[in-house]
Amino acid sequence: MSRRKKIYEGKAKILYEGPEPGTLVQYFKDDATAFNNKKKATLEGKGVLNNRISEFIMLNLGRVGVPTHFIRRLNMREQLVREVEIIPLEVICRNVAAGSISQRLGIPEGDALPRSIVEFCYKNDSLNDPLVAEEHITAFNWASTQEIDDIISLTLRVNDFLSGMFAAVGIRLIDFKLEFGRLYEGDMVRTVLADEISPDSCRLWDIETNEKMDKDRFRRDLGNVTEAYAEVARRLGIMKEAPRAANDEAWK
Ligand code: 5GP
């Protein structure tokens, strides 16, 4: 394999220079981290699963008119994406209380929220991605008011689409995290969905049993992490045999 220029290495993914200007290759690692890197592991096959699940979701969002950075999957661990300027926000959408909102506001985990809630966190590991208000975002120029409006409406569209898509396969979408970027096209700039959408960035519970099928299995030491991700892929019809998902050979 020819050596490519590494643009950025994150906790779960690496970005390489793409084959054409304005493109990048997004490589999915098997590394899992939680609690801002305090807990680490390698989960064999996780990157392969997230590459496929994120491809499936981004493609389907594109089909319903949500602009994304996704171009196409290249192989079992890589996808070609458009180069965007990442907006330094983690945009969280919640339907059911869990995780930090339960801790922060004392709402029991599993309680349905009165309506879907969109939150913004400033994307900064050394500060633990703190929750911020729109006032901070505009005052510090992280995004404009127009971009915030676009982000909220896109996030709610993603929520509607994903909630229905997962419900159809017996999964409840509890919450998820999105990232957005600025796509420059000539004189135009567009806000598009970037990064990934996978069980690493969503909370997914079985509709019947409330069993967790996401990264909380890793965060809370529940075991069978890749098996749960493979079950999500299997239910979405991405693959036929759940146990084979963890095996790179199955994806060639
Ligand atoms: P919470 O704020 O409750 O910890 O997380 C809310 C949702 O956003 C969960 O689905 C969680 O997986 C996702 N999320 C929050 N922060 C991050 C992050 O830094 N990386 C990823 N992959 N997901 C995150």
TrEMBL record:
Broad class of enzyme this protein falls into: ligase
PANTHER family, sorted: MULTIFUNCTIONAL PROTEIN ADE2, SI:DKEY-6E2.2
SUPFAM superfamilies: SAICAR synthase-like
Organism: Hyphobacterium vulgare
InterPro entries from the UniProt entry: SAICAR_synt/ADE2_N, SAICAR_synt_PurC, SAICAR_synth, SAICAR_synthetase, SAICAR_synthetase_CS
Any GO molecular function: phosphoribosylaminoimidazolesuccinocarboxamide synthase activity
Residue ranges of every copy of the SAICAR synthetase/ADE2 N-terminal domain listed in the record: 6-235
This protein's name: Phosphoribosylaminoimidazole-succinocarboxamide synthase
Reaction equations catalysed: 5-amino-1-(5-phospho-D-ribosyl)imidazole-4-carboxylate + L-aspartate + ATP = (2S)-2-[5-amino-1-(5-phospho-beta-D-ribosyl)imidazole-4-carboxamido]succinate + ADP + phosphate + 2 H(+)
HAMAP family: SAICAR_synth
Family the UniProt entry places it in: Belongs to the SAICAR synthetase family.
Pathway assignment: Purine metabolism; IMP biosynthesis via de novo pathway; 5-amino-1-(5-phospho-D-ribosyl)imidazole-4-carboxamide from 5-amino-1-(5-phospho-D-ribosyl)imidazole-4-carboxylate: step 1/2
